[in-house]
Amino acid sequence: MIHVVGAGFAGVETAWGLAERGHRVSLYEMRPVVMTPAHTTEQFAELVCSNSFKSKAPDSPAGQLKSEMQSLGSIVLATAYEHEVPGGQALAVDRLRFATAMTAKMDAHPYIDVSRRAVSPADVETWLRDGDFVVLATGPLTCDDLSAWLAAQTGRAHLYFYDAVAPTVEAASLDMSIVFAQSRYDKGEGDDYLNCPFDRESYDAFVEALINAERAPIHAFESGGKRDAAPDEQEAEFIEKIKYFAGCTPIEAIADKGRDSLRFGNFKPVGLTDPRTGRRPYAALQLRPENREKSLYSLVACQTRLKWGEQRRVFGMVPGLANAEFVRFGVIHRNTYVEAPSVLAQDLSMKEHPNLFLSGQLTGVEGYVESAAMGIYTAVAIDARLRGSALALPPRASAYGSLISHLQDPTEREFAPMNINWGLFPDPALEPKPGKKRVDKGVIRETKIANARSEFEAWRGGL
């Protein structure tokens, strides 16, 4: 028997994918018996934030991922196109019609048994003892008892309840005439870190902009405080909770304490020498590799709650980041996800519990489309297990391969959920045109998509 817990984007894709392959599935959804602070209906796959499934452009990362999902039989995307509304280049939907249709399709499928109840840890343990397959697709607001149980299975150090991460940028967009590679006091490998050196003027301007930048609001269920509490009270409660769970303080909250607080803290320049001047910088923002290929770098200790447009503006003032392309903005909000490289096998099953699979945002991906994509992949993986065949991993060049690579990458870093983006796709081996120092960015991206399409189709044909 296969039990899928949670009827969000990952859960419905997993259940549908398995049912369409001839397997009987029990799909559990606790709403409306138990509601969450973010949902307003009892419908499956409810969109709680934006009504957009990202770009429809076929030559974009999101477009390529959607193409691969459709090739694997995505029910979410098929239903989204049935209820599409004008959204420019984005696939936008009528959220109520979409969710209602998704629910009706799950209820009507002869191989899917829908149960409206909360699943307990005791249920999961019983199913696993019986040799059943269990898929937890409970999303960022996983209920407390299942969260506690999952923490016990993973080890508390590998389960996170808040998404408190810094912005991530593409390496190719950095100005390397300013940014320099050096670890403090030259310890470790020489290119372990990149450094953005401030002089006093640029530092003061950055801090001024940071302090006055607009910050994202805090939802009541995130702060855990009273709904009628003043905004500054909610913020204080939220920051204390974040510090407890994630060990961090938003960079803007540090700057609020004094103009030199960053220079003597997160941005301390000790042990660094700017090769342009031969001297220690006034302050330095460090960048740390986010993957093996070093195509992505995170801004060290820059967790932030600034609005996304403000992040682009303020961090663009950092020397060397004027033209930086952000593949992920900093966020601090309620979430639940595992440290996938430590916890999950390549098929998204738990290393310590081979019949227990995680799917959707619990795995460490971010976004509606990415969560749905992991649901499809979970169905493919369980189907392969039930047929007794080895699961061939999606090729590295594909969108699926890029996401799975992120979830499996053992690079030492603060693991954080990630959307599909250009930096996750492997860089092709290209030579710049004569007289050029770099290959044109457009050519690189066209090649990445071409490689993804050809390699994915070859993999798909072998399933």
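The above is record 1. Record 2 follows with the same two-line structure.
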Amino acid sequence: MNKLAAVGLLFALVACQQEPSQPKRSPRVVEPSALAATMREMTADMESLKAKAQAGTLTLADVESLRAAHEPIKTADPTKPEEIKESFPGFAEAYLSNLDALADALRQQGNREAQIEAFNTVIATCESCHQQHCPGPLDRIRGIKVEQ
């Protein structure tokens, strides 16, 4: 047998002895809880409004729309109900109240600084709650505040 044929035979033997590759399993997709989904929306909404708050172009319609969309925070089921502390409903109410205060600042046609202060108060409520309940997104939340 010539050398080329021997190498080919050896290659075929090695290739046949290897186990067939296992198909890769895709990671299991877990649906977020209603509360997690609501908070993700809230975060995205507030991040998108940050630029408007900075520019002083935030509108009453913007805030009223958020208020309605974020109302489920009070009743949405959490991922781990056992980790929700008694203080959570108060934080949810404070968040919604602070959105109302931001709307009031816009109704009163307060200056840009008053609007930014009201916007940052809303974000501070999120920060306070997450310090007690779920600290993971704190850096992202802090990044939404508008620098004055």
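Confidence is low (pLDDT under 50) at residues 4-19.
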